[in-house]
Amino acid sequence: MTQPPPQPPPPLPAPPHSGPSRGDVQVRCAGCRVILRVKTGVVEFSCPTCQLPQMLPPELLSRARTQPPPPIQSLPPPPQQLKPMNLQQQQQQQPQPRPPVPAHGIDPTKMQLPCANCQAILNVPHGLARFSCPQCHVELAVDVSKLNRSLTAPQSQSAPPSVPPPPPEEVNEEAIEVEREEDEGGTAGETFMDYRPPKLSIGPPHPDPIVETSSLSAVQPPEPTYDLRIKEELEESKALSCLQIETLVYACQRHLQHLADGTRAGFFVGDGAGVGKGRTIAGLIWENWKHGRRKALWISVGSDLKYDARRDLDDVGATCVGAPSMMSSYLELLWITDYCAFLMISDKLNLDCIPIGFVILMNPLNKLPYSKLDSKNVGVKDGVVFLTYNSLIASSEKGRSRLQQLVQWCGPDFDGLLIFDECHKAKNLVPEAGSQPTRIGQAVVDIQDKIPQARVLYCSATGASEPRNMGYMVRLGLWGAGTSFSDFSKFLGALDKGGVGALELVAMDMKARGMYVCRTLSYKGAEFEIVEAPLEAGMEAMYNKSAEFWAELRIEMLSANAFLPNEKPNSSQLWRLYWSSHQRFFRHLCMSAKVPVTVRLAKKALLANKCVVIGLQSTGEARTEEAVTKYGVELDDFVSGPRELLLKFVEENYPLPEQPEPLSEDDSVKELHRKRHSASPGVSVRGRVRKMAKWKPDSDDESYLESEAESADDSNDSDDEFQICQICSGEDERKKLLHCSECDKLFHPDCVVPPVTDLPSEAWICYSCKEKTEEYIQARRVYIAELQKRYEAALERKLKILEIIRSLNLPNNPLDDIVDQLGGPDKVAEITGRRGMLVRASNGKGVTYQARNTKDITMEMVNMHEKQLFMEGKKFVAIISEAGSAGVSLQADRRAANQRRRVHLTLELPWSADRAIQQFGRTHRSNQTSAPEYSLLFTNLGGERRFASIVAKRLETLGALTQGDRRKVMHLSKPAGPSLSAYNYDSNFGKKSLMVMYRGIMEQEKLPVVPPGCSTDEPETIKEFLTKARAALIAVGIVRDSVLANGKDTGKLSGRIIDSDMHDVGRFLNRLLGLPPDIQNRLFELFTSILDVLVHNARIEGTFDSGIVDMKANSVELLTTPKTVHVDQMSGASTMLFTFTLDRGITWESASSMLEGKRRDGLGSASDGFYESKREWLGRRHFILAFESTASGLFKTVRPAVGESIREMSLSELKTKYRKLSSLEKARNGWEDEYEISSKQCMHGPKCKLGEYCTVGRRIQEVNVVGGLILPIWGTIEKALSKQARQSHKRIRVIRIETTTDNQRIVGLSIPNAAVETVLQDLAWVQEIDD
C-alpha cells in the first residue's frame, strides 16, 4: 500500500526481538504521537510525556479487564528513517513467521496492509483501491500489481502450509441504509411557534398572532432589569403591545452595556413586516427623550416613510415634550431627503404638555446650507433628524458632506439614538469577490465610528439573511476585541464552515445575550395558490421569434465589430450592454405573458367584492420616457417596452465605422501649403498645439548671462549672407532666392525648370514637392471613398435591423396595459417609483403622456395620495413596485374605510425569496380584519415554476392555508424541506451541478442523468439533445470561439466555456431566458436533475448540510443534569451540555394502528402492508411496514428499531428487496423480535467491532447537545470534531430536540460521544448547574 501516486517504498528494518507481552496494547498518544504500551485492564490513562488524559479507542475496549492500572511505559518515537513497506517486502523479510496468534484487531475476512505514513496495520476489504488511513488521515492507494504478484508468487519449501482464504464478508445492506439515514441526522424543517414575551407581562397582547422560529423559541432571553420611564403612559394609552414593550426594555438594557473596545453596544430588531417596527422605534425615541437625550438620527430607505414616522411618534404620545427651561415645548423633527428638508416646529406654546399641532415649513435641500444644523440660519437645536441612506452619502460642491454635518450636530459626546431603519440597504459592505463595497455601507460604518457612544439600533426583516450581510453591524460585538473572532473575515469564515444552520445559531446567541429579537406575523388565515400562466400560442411564437432574432443580432454585432479598428476601446462595454438588454428584454416578455391571467383574476376578485393588489418589480418607465422624447406626448398606442429597448440598444451601440470627412475644394495644393506655411511653430495644420517641456535654468543669474551671450551671437549672424542654391550651389542673398515652403530648400529663379520670372508674393513650392503632394491627395480621395462606401454599407445594415425591430410584434408595457384594462388611472391606484404614465384618450383613440401628480399634489406626495385613495375605498385596485412601496401598509386595516379582503397577485416575483416575502408583507400586517389571498403567477419558462413553489412553501410554514387540491402543487418539485435554501441554485451544489452539466454537454464527461426527453435505449436521442444544447449555449454566448469541425466530425460544433462561466449560476439562469421555451425548459430540467443527484449523493456520503434537523423519537429524556460549560461575562448567558436518551422504536401495536388508520381513511393502496427482507443477515431477516405516500406516489417505510425512514422507496425497489407478508402472525413475531433485540445491540449483530459504541439501527441512543451560547466556544468544538474518525461526525451539525415528558426544546450543536471528553477538557471549567 502506498500513497498516491504509488512509489516503491524502501525496505523496513527487521523488527526488534523485544516486544510487548501477550495482551498488552500499543497505541499512539493523541497529543505528542509517542507510542505507548498499555497494560491489560487499563481503560483511562495519561501520557507520561505530554500529560494528556485520554482513553482507549472503542475498538480496543474489549481487551480491557478489571485489574488495577499498572504504570504506563513509554516507547521512543519511531525513527525518521523508518519507511513503510508493502506486502511483498514484508513476506521477503520474514521467511520464518511466528506461529499464528489470535492478534487483536485483525479481521480475517480482510487484507492486512501497512499505512505508508504512520505504519499502522490496516484491515482493507478486498477490492478497495483508495481510502484514508483512520489514524493519520492520509489518502492511500493499493498498488494492485505488487499485490497480485505477492499473492500469486510460489511459496518457498520452508514456508508453512498456506491457510485457506477466509470467506467473503457478509454485507448487511439494511444496516448500510439505516447508517446513511442516521448520518443525515433527521428530518430538515423550519417550524414556527406562537410567540408571547416569556419574561415580561407589560402591555396588551399584540392584535394579531405572532410566531417565532422554533429554534429561537428554544432560547430564553436574559432577565429584564431595565425600568421604563414611559411605562405608566404606555399602560394607560395601550399604544404598544406587550412584544413591542419587550423590545423597548431589552434595547434600553443592551444600550447600557459597552463592548471590549469601549464603544456602546447595539441592538438588532429583526422583526418581520407588519409586526410594528416603526412604532417600536417611536417608543424608543420617546423613552430616550424622557431621559434628556433630545437628539436622535433616524435613517431609512425612502422619504415617503417620514409620514409613517410622524404617525408612529404621535401614536406613542410623542406629540409634546415638557421643557420648563425653554420658552416653548416642542419636539422638532427635521427631515432631510434628496429633495426637501422638512422642519416641524410647534405652533403653540404650552408648558402643560397638551398635544401640539404642527406646521410644515418646506425648504428645498439645495437651498438648505451645509452649515451647522444648530446655527442661526438653520436653527435645529435638538429633535429627530430623519434622512435617507442616499442623503447620508450626499455632499456639496465645496466638498462638505451630510455625514460631516450630522456628526457635528451630534457632537463628540453624543449618546442618543442612531437608528438604521431597513438597514439591509447597507448589506453590501462586504461584497462577493470581485465586487467593491458600496458607499452607503461604508458611510454606515463611518458614522458609527465617529459617534462611539451613540445608542445604535439596527432594524430589518432581512438584515441577516446571509452572514456576509452583517458586516456593518459592528456594535453587536460578535467579532473584534474580546470575542472568539479577531475580525469580521474570521467570523464569516467560521459561519461558512458551519453551513446552513450556523446563522440560526448566531441568531440564538444574540437572543440569549439580549441583543436581538426576531418575530414575524403569522400567516394564519391567509390563503395561497400557485397559478400557471402558460404561454399562449401567439406569445410562444413571439418568444421563439425574439430568441431567434437576438441570436442573429449577436452574430451581426460580432461581424460588424470585427471590421472596426483593433484599438476600438468600447468592445467589452458593448457586450455588457448587449447582455443586460438581453436579460431585461426577456424578463419583460415573461411579465407580458402573465397579463391576461392577471386581468382575469383581478376582475374575478372585484366581482366577489374583494380588492386587488398587484405586485411587480419593474415599471418600464425608462423606455416610456425615451419614446415620449422621440415621438412626442401623443402616441397611437402604449409603448412596447421590449421594442423600445431593442431600438435604443441598436441605435446607440451598433458598431459603425467612423464616417470619413471628404476633401473640400479648399484642400487644394495651394491652400494646403498656405496652411502649412502660415502655421506657427509648434502648431499643427489643424491648429493643435504641441506641448513642449520648458527648460528652467538653475538660477536667475545664469539665465541672464546665457541670454546675453545668445543675443550677442544673434546680432553677428545674418540670414541674408552666404545662402546657397540647391541646383547650382551658387551663393546669393536670401531675398534673391526662391524658398520652397514644403522642403525648405532655396533655388535661383533661373535654375528651376521652367524658370520663374517674377518672385512670388505668396508661398511657393518646388515642382518635385508639388508632384508628390498631388499624388498623395489623389490617393487620399480614393481611400476616403472606400471608407465612405464601408460606412454606408454598415449604416444600411443598421437601418435594416431597425426596420426589422419595428416590424416585430412585441407586447406593450405590462403596467400600462393592466391599468388600461382595469379601468384606467381613475380606478387603479399606482404606488410605484415612476414620474409619468400613458393614459388612453377619452375617445379611445391613441394615448397621451401625462405626469402622475397634479397641481395640488406634489410628485413626492403622489404615492401617499394614491395609497390613501385605495385605503378609503375610492379605488379597489392597487399596483405596487419594490421602488415605490417600501414600508407601505395596504392591509385590510380596521382603521381604514376599505376593509375588503385583499387579493394579492404577484405578476413578477423577485429572484430572492426574502424580497418576495417583503412584497407579501405590504398586504399582510397587524390590525387587519382579514388575511389576504395570495396568487403566485408563473409561466412554464425556466425556473419560475420551481421558485414559486419554494416561496409558497415558505408561506405554508408561516401558517398560510391551502384549500382543495392546491397543496398538490407544492410537490411538483418535491422540495427537500420548507427551508428557502433547499433549492438555492446559486449554492456550492448549484455551481458544481452547472459545471457537471457544461462538461457533459461539451462531451468532456458523461452526464450523470439521462437528459429530459431522451432514452438510454435510443442513444441518438441523447446525441441530438447534446447538439441542440451546444447550439443553444453558443446562441447565448456561454460557449465561445465556436467552429464547425471537419473530417470525421464534420458538422459538429465545438468551442470552449471559460472558467468564470463554468460556475456562474446567475449568468446561466439569466441567459437561459433568451432561448426558445422548448430547449430552455429542457436545459433547466437537466440542471436541476443533476443538482438533485449531487444533493442525494451528498446525503448518502454524509457531507450534505441540511441546516437545522429535528431529532425525532417516541421517547426523548434527559439522561443527566445539564452541565454549565461557559458563562458570558457581559450578559450572564451560559452554554450548557445536555445528554439525552432516545427511544426510536415503533411497537407492533403502533405500527398496526398506522396501517389501519390509512385504510380507514381510504388512503391505502393494495401494496400497503408488512414486509420481510428477502435476504438473511446473521441468520435473521428484517421487517418493515410500507405504505404509499399520497404526495409523491412513493412508499414510506417504518422499521421496528428506528421508526419512519426519511427516504421514500419506489414500488419496484420495494418488491426487489422485500416480500409482502400475508400472515399477520409471522409479521408480528418478526416485528416484536427485532424490536426487542434492537434495544441491546446494533444491526451488525453481537460481534460488531465497535461494540456498544455502534448506534446503527440501535433503538435506544445517547445524544449529546451543546446548547445556549455557542459562539464563544465555537473554535473549541470545531477543533474537537476535526479529530473524529467518521466523516459525518467531523462537520458541525445543528440539531433540534424536544423531550417528550416536559416538552423542553433544545437547539444546539450535536457532539459525538467520542468527542465529549475532548470538548470538556478544552474548555476552561465544567460545573454542574444548580437545581
Describe the structure.
The chain is an alpha+beta fold and about 1350 residues long. It contains 37 helices and 50 strands. Helices cover about 35% and strands about 15% of the residues. Strands 10, 38, 39, 40, 41, 47, 48, 49 and 50 form a nine-stranded mixed sheet that branches. Helix 24 links the parallel strand 34 and strand 35. Helix 17 packs across helix 18 (about 640-655) and helix 27 (about 990-1000) crosses helix 31. The protein is globular, with a radius of gyration of 41 Å. The relative contact order is 0.08. Residues about 1-20, about 65-105, about 150-170, about 320-370, about 665-720, about 960-985 and about 1325-1330 have low confidence and may be disordered.
From the spread of the alpha carbons, the general shape counts as globular
Beta-strand percentage?
A: 15-25%
Report the average pLDDT across residues.
75
CA-atom Rg in angstroms: 41 Å
* Alpha carbon gap, first and last residue: 56 Å
Main sheet attributes: strand count, strand direction, barrel closure: 9 strands, mixed
Approximate helicity band: 25-40%
Detail the topology: elements first, then pairings.
Elements: E1 25-28, E2 35-38, E3 44-46, E4 53-55, E5 73-74, H1 87-93, E6 111-114, E7 121-124, E8 130-132, E9 139-141, H2 144-152, H3 173-184, E10 187-188, E11 192-194, E12 210-213, H4 214-217, H5 231-237, H6 242-254, E13 267-269, H7 277-290, E14 295-300, H8 305-315, E15 333-336, E16 340-346, E17 358-364, E18 383-388, H9 389-392, H10 402-410, E19 417-421, H11 439-450, E20 455-459, H12 488-498, H13 502-512, E21 516-517, E22 520-521, E23 527-532, H14 537-562, H15 571-593, H16 595-607, E24 611-616, H17 621-631, E25 634-635, H18 641-653, H19 669-678, H20 700-716, E26 723-724, E27 731-732, E28 738-739, E29 746-747, H21 767-807, H22 814-821, E30 828-831, E31 836-840, E32 847-851, H23 862-871, E33 877-881, E34 902-906, H24 913-920, E35 933-938, H25 944-957, H26 966-969, H27 988-1001, H28 1019-1035, E36 1040-1044, E37 1053-1056, H29 1059-1062, H30 1065-1072, H31 1077-1101, E38 1109-1110, E39 1115-1118, E40 1123-1127, E41 1134-1143, H32 1148-1160, E42 1169-1173, E43 1183-1188, E44 1195-1199, E45 1203-1204, H33 1211-1217, E46 1218-1220, H34 1224-1237, ...
Parallel strand pairs: 13-20, 13-21, 14-18, 14-19, 15-18, 19-20, 23-35, 24-33, 24-34, 30-33, 34-35, 38-48
Antiparallel strand pairs: 1-2, 2-5, 3-4, 6-7, 8-9, 10-38, 11-12, 12-22, 15-16, 16-17, 25-32, 26-27, 28-29, 31-32, 36-37, 39-41, 40-41, 40-50, 41-47, 42-43, 42-46, 43-44, 44-45, 47-49, 48-49
Domain PHD-type: 722-772
Biased composition (Low complexity): 82-95
Region (Disordered): 1-24, 61-108, 151-194, 657-719
